[in-house]
Amino acid sequence: MEDIIVSVLFRTLVAGTPLLLATVGEVICERSGILNLGVEGVMAVGAVVAFMVTYNTGHPWVGVLAALIVGMIFSLIHSFASVTLQANQVVSGLALTMLGLGLSGMLGKPYVGKPLSIKMQNWEFPFLSDIPFVGEILFKQSPFFYLAVFLAFGAWFLLERTRLGIQIRSTGENPRATETQGINVSMVRHLCVIIGGGFSALAGAHLSISYSKSWIEGMTAGRGWIAIALTIFALWNPGRAIWASFLFGFIFVLQYLLQPLGISPNFLAILPYAATLIILLIISLKDHRKLNAPAMLAEPYKRGER
Amino acid sequence: MKIRITDRDHITGLRSLAANIMSLAAGLLAISLIFLLNKVNPIFAISEIFSGSFGSMYGFKETITKAIPLILIGSGLTLAFRAKFWNIGAEGQLLMGAVFSSWIGLNIGPHLPSYLIVPLMFLAGFIGGALWGIIPAILKIRYSINEVICTLMLNYICAEFLTMLIVGPWKGKTRFGFPGTDNLPESAILGLIPGSRIHYATLILALVSAVILTILIYKTRFGYEARVVGENPDAGKYAGIDFLKTSMILMAISGGLAGFAGVGEMAGIHKYLGYPASLSSGYGFTAIIVAWLAKLNPLYAIFSGIFFAGILVGGDAIQISLGLPAATVEIVNGTLLVFLIMGDYFLKHKVTIQFSKQTQGAS
After folding, report:
1. To the nearest 5 percent, what fractions of chain A are helix, strand and coil?
2. Angle B348-B349-B353 from CA coordinates, rounded to 5°
3. pLDDT by residue (tens digit) across B262-298?
4. d(CA A214, CA A191)
5. Domain range spanning residue A263?
6. Are B164 and A266 inside 8 Å of each other by CB?
7. Residue of B86, B292, B334 lying closest to A102 (CB–CB)
8. CB contact under 8 A, A96 and B292
9. I need a labelling partner for A28 at 20 to 30 A (CA). Which of A42, B170, B294, B337 fits?
10. What's the ipTM?
11. What CATH number is given to the structural domain containing A241?
């Protein structure tokens, strides 16, 4: 029984890792006032780039770096359209997702059915991993897990405790007033979209070189969209994103846990998507003023306009 | 050199068309780059796409076949998008339409003549799609749940639900264990224009829907209210517009039209209820671009629907002739959408580049 609990909790953290990375990225982006619906697409691009580079170089970390860089560059499309051209952010984000899924399908095609010889190895902390129960769950995880948790805390510190964080948040709340303080609103927003894209790409990299070691088309399976929902669930707070993501990680694991009971696997596959809706419903029953949504989310900002 | 940007006061139809054509041209240029990276001659590939879809009678018939669902869904989306209701769930609404109509077709079809069963199936398909569209309308207005996420989640849920049906209780006896229902009875299969796969009943329905929607949007009180909800919600509230009712009706229409498309695909092309991915084949997403290219005018959606159907058909053609992956079409569509959005900027703003006198004198 204990073995099962350990394995379930272990896999919960594994499944929650990409969600956490993508959610934290989206939190940073939305806090600056830009809604980025391109997460799914950037994630897919990150997954394929990380896989291709790891496959060809044999170094998973080089793959991670490549995914990060490409993900950030790819996100420039959204930041250019939504910040510079003040385009509709919903449509621009959707375009990014379509393009990202397409590009990943094209780039990844030669790699279908070719697993990696070296995937990202899990880290095993000496002594710590020997602690019964806790050690087995927490200290034998993929480097992505530690990276995700570290970055989540880092993002929380950045947003809540630093000057730059205040600038990012006020950009999302009241860009006009922020601009009068001498802050370049457009620059802050560009930066946040690009950083958010980097996070999404890391999430994708986790899927293709750590979570599994082969690339298949559509392997992101809606996780990017779930991350956008988790951003709301986390009330735009990277700290809350941690447990929100791992709660969803558990729902992903629950599918496999319930399968032996003879429930249709397709019915179980509905679980994460239905849970997303249910959680948004619960959130909406709360007082809206406490939701903490950035006031100017998805509102294009035009300099000098009254 | 100085770049001056000023707002345009009014946007003429001609300028709108020019902006669209320029955007598409710029988009094709970017796509050429992607072809080049794949070591494919871009001029050859792009001409191959359009000759594959519009260059031959066979290609043109296929283009019209694929334009049917795009026109239906795309014109429905123009209504929803005008009210700033971002319905990304047409895939799911199409599938729900297919589920509802296949039940009618399989269970009642054998006992009724074609002229009764086909309208019944379209009715069922509309209801299925409309129901799946009304859910996010209620969730958005009553519970302020973001409709993009909601409609997307409903896509996934519907696809899994449909798969559950066709591998489980609805699995046909004639499928030898493969997923899918039995074939529809003869009376429930939609008639085709001879020598093509064009199911004409759905084609007529698509064209009529686009016309009716145009009248609805521009000439009725409901259309006016839907536009106010999108463009100026505060004014809408003061004017006493019932947001819930308006959103539910417009999503019932948008979803219902996607449901029609589902009936057409299921009963006109496949003739049974099969895998969701092959039934919807991304029409729900492509239709978003169709609506955008049509500048949210349902009548124009007929033309942009045919244009994007052409890209789908031509894309299939170059996949075979040039050995490009299936995702090529997605890239072409995504790139064109990116450039269409960017083109809107130049439609709304006047960008002039001024050379100062000094630089002119120097050169």
Report:
1. 75, 0, 25
2. 155
3. 999 999 999 999 999 999 989 999 999 999 999 999 9
4. 32
5. 2-114+140-291
6. yes
7. B334
8. no
9. B337
10. 0.90
11. 1.10.3470
